[in-house]
User: What shape does this take?
Amino acid sequence: MEKTPSGTAVGVDDPYDHAGLCDHLTDEGLCRYAFEHPQHDPEFARERREDEFACPVAREAGTASERTTEERSDSRADSDGDWNWSDCPHFRCRNRDRRCIRCGLEERRIAHSNERPLLEEHHLSYAGELRSPSNQTQSDDAGEGETLSHEITVYLCRWCHAKVHKSWARIHDDVNPDPEAIAEAEGRRSREQVEAAFETAADRYDDSME
Assistant: This one.
């Protein structure tokens, strides 16, 4: 199983199996990174500019999530010119869905409250991480035998987050929210309803006269 730099498990064997679209991908299938930050990687930006900034992964019929692990472990671009998310040196995928990917618990934040969030960001892969040869993907940025990984994150509730890091729990386990998590979420939901309750001016006036 893939591990964090500190050695704890992240709950997946291959982060790219759970990665969505790249954060830099526009709705038109273009690479925003190459357009907005050409100075960070001039060669990459020049290649994308020559291709009218088209994302080489989105352009292909299949995405990385639709291909096998063996295919993803191939070179940066195969003989047909196909790319996968793991092939791009600037791929980044941060999940924005405020729901636990493991148990489905939804976030409930109360305005102006310092309470600890129900959900926490969980890294499946880290930008700049050196991966072992057995789990590596090819990249021109890496030295022989090791390679740089990408930032891939999802949201887990606090309870699932702890189970993934402290045991062999996986993010795709078919589980229900922890009873403590449900109780915490329902407590916040009740407070939300109280704060959002409508009170007419007449009621407020009568209360102030008592």
In short: The radius of gyration is 22 Å. Residues 91-209 form one domain.
